[in-house]
Amino acid sequence: MSLAVFPGTFDPPTYGHLNVIERASKLFTELQVVISVNPDKKALFSESERKEMLLELTKPFLNVSVQTCNSLVVDYCKKVGAKVLLRGIRNANDFSYEFDLSLINRSLNPDVETLFVPTEQRFFLIRSSSIKDVAKFGGDVSAMVPPVVEKALKAKFSDKN
């Protein structure tokens, strides 16, 4: 297979995200990790901070690049010629939400297929929102995020305290 797009807010990037990236990098000639930028969503990390972390985390994968997108992801796929949109899922709730979204995306761009990639079982409980809550109160997030992200979380919350 050739080009796939793996979009997300990645606020922050987690071991679950990295698991999907690593596995997808073995399936596709090229994988673009796309940071979805939604100005209406309040992100903890800026677009550039998320991109910097993801660039560091994806260095080992030579066929992976990190991009940003502030439009519909199916429009981004059309622009770059991607026919595959990857979505990581952890559980039935994720699947239900992502399935509905895939139907909308398909109606917007029938040339793009959505593939669901379940994370490995050890990452099922990892949610970016939970990680931010744990980190905010000084909890240990080392099992949920790579060291570069853990460091950024500590810096972010020490600035707020």
Describe the structure.
The mean pLDDT is 90. This protein has a 5-stranded parallel sheet, sandwiched between helices. The chain is globular. The protein is of the alpha/beta class. Helix 1 links the parallel strand 1 and strand 2. The protein has helices at 15-25, 47-57, 73-80, 92-108, 128-136, 147-160; strands at residues 3-8, 30-36, 64-69, 84-89, 113-118. The N and C termini lie far apart (47 Å).
Regions with little confidence, pLDDT below 50 for 5+ residues: none
Adjacency order of strands in the biggest sheet: 3-2-1-4-5
Gap from first CA to last CA: 47 Å
Instruction: Tell me the radius of gyration.
Output: 15 Å
β-strand number: 5
Average pLDDT, to the nearest integer? 90
Shape: globular
- Number of H/I helices: 6
Brief rundown of the structure:
Helix content is 43%, strand content 19%. The chain is built from six helices and five strands; from the N terminus they run βαβαβαβαβαα.
State the main characteristics.
alpha/beta; 5-stranded parallel beta sheet; 43% helix
SSE blueprint:
Layout lengths: L2 E6 L6 H11 L4 E7 L10 H11 L6 E6 L3 H8 L3 E6 L2 H17 L4 E6 L9 H9 L10 H14 L1
